[in-house]
Design a protein that fits this description.
385 residues, alpha/beta, Rossmann fold, 15 strands, 41% helix, globular, binds nicotinamide-adenine-dinucleotide
Length: 385
């Protein structure tokens, strides 16, 4: 029986994946300090090591004790807006802690990892044919200046390019004296694509994976998930983040009277109703993708990056309508100005994951809304109480 160590396994997507791993017969160890996760979302019998990734020596002890065959790494911060005002927090958790994790893997002989990446690595399309996004975009498109929006670093207002370079200075300082981790000119061009520090941190993680693969033979799959919505159809887990950012979670919180009004950011995008277009994906489909990725790596598959999405384009207004339909109630919303770091359109081509992993999304938007509604209106409180 293969042993899988899951960082962030008590969180939203992590807990769906832990459930799937247990059902598929893997032995699971969760490493999570519960800063935004919940032990109650874990299936019975799963070992929880309540440790922060910052604590490198404790993380190493966990690896030496359990000797995992592979890692699935979910632990990260993921709020796009927050990353533009607290970039150092994103560097520490999403980049520095990730390097610690890879070092521990290398030091203890664990050579397989499946890593959460994101649609935020893509930035804004530059021409119509860029959509749906293909994984090759981040290798082929070479912008001269950062698409990153201007941001605030402490009290300093910085242009996108300066903001990016300051973020990369943290990386250069951390990796000084490690030639295997030096960024090339090509790496830096890639990092000019995302619009937010969150997106930069995740694309940098993919680049770091490539470097650990070349230098130390660590084999990886990075899954770029698009917008995750919905909950476990068996009602064992769902989104519980203390500070909700998930669109359906916010919609149902409004419908259930827990949020006075839903903010819709921007109705002046060049889309059919002016609101942002996204590609939504159910966490149980992602869970299946992680299990297939592990099987792919264990059977000798080469290190790769895959999109994970349905390929269906939905505007924010369409998500609101689908949610209103299952709840049988109207949402009280207000249009606000566009939010820093949000692209107008983000829809994926996931055919590479279909061809190489045999993965395909099963759940559609209406099922995401049904399962999220059941979770938010009945099961979430019961499980967390
Ligand atoms: N939710 C989405 O829409 C979405 C979309 C694309 C990618 N992702 C990626 O998926 C991953 C999981 O997202 P999620 O929505 O499940 O988030 P989440 O906040 O629900 O889960 C993250 C988990 O990691 C734990 N964690 C965070 N930092 C840690 C640390 N330093 N040490 C130990 N534990 C730590 C938290 O306690 C939590 O349980 C993230 O890497 C995120 O970037 C999420």
């Amino acid at each position: 029986m293969k042993k899988i160590l899951v960082t962030g396994g008590a969180g939203y997507i992590g807990s769906h994946t832990v459930k799937e791993l247990v059902e598929k017969g893997f032995q699971v160890i969760v490493l999570d300090d519960l800063r935004s996760g919940f032990e109650k979302l874990l299936p019975e019998g799963v070992v929880l090591e309540k440790i922060g990734l910052e604590n490198k020596s404790a993380v190493k002890e966990v690896f030496l004790k359990h000797k995992p065959d592979a890692v699935i790494d979910f632990a990260a911060y993921l709020a796009v807006g927050e990353s533009m005002v607290e970039p150092e927090k994103y560097f520490e958790n999403n980049v520095e802690n990730f390097i610690h994790l890879l070092d521990v893997m290398h030091e203890t002989g664990c050579n397989y990892i499946v890593k959460s990446s994101t649609a935020a690595v893509y930035g804004n399309p530059t021409k119509d044919s860029d959509i749906p996004w293909k994984e090759t975009f981040t290798n082929e498109y070479k912008p001269a200046e950062a698409a990153l929006l201007e941001g605030k670093w402490g009290n300093e207002e910085l242009s996108g390019e300066k903001f990016l370079q300051k973020f990369l200075d943290l990386y250069r300082a951390l990796c000084a004296g490690r030639p295997e981790l030096v960024l090339s000119g090509g790496d830096i061009s890639k990092l000019r694509i995302p619009l937010s520090i969150y997106g930069v941190s995740k694309l940098l993680d993919e680049i770091i994976l490539e470097k650990y693969n070349k230098a130390f033979g660590i084999n990886y799959v990075a899954l770029r998930y698009f917008n995750v919505c919905g909950a476990d159809p068996e009602h064992k887990t769902g989104d519980c983040k203390p500070k909700a950012t998930n669109l359906m979670t916010l919609i149902f919180a409004q419908i259930n009277g827990k949020l006075p009004q839903l903010a819709v950011f921007g109705d002046d995008y060049p889309t059919k109703d002016g609101t942002g277009v996204r590609d939504y994906i159910h966490p149980s489909d992602l869970a299946n993708g992680h299990v297939l990725s592990l099987k792919y790596l264990f059977s000798g598959g080469r290190s790769e990056v895959f999109n994970h999405a349905t390929g269906e384009a939905s505007t924010v207004m369409e998500v609101i309508q689908a949610s209103e339909k299952v709840a049988g109630k109207k949402v009280n919303y207000k249009i606000e100005s566009r939010r820093s770091g949000d692209p107008s359109v983000s829809v994926a081509d996931s055919s590479k994951a279909k061809e190489m992993l045999g993965w395909e999304a099963k759940y559609r938007l209406s099922e995401m809304a049904e399962t999220a509604w059941e979770w938010e209106s009945e099961y979430k409180e019961k499980i967390l109480k």
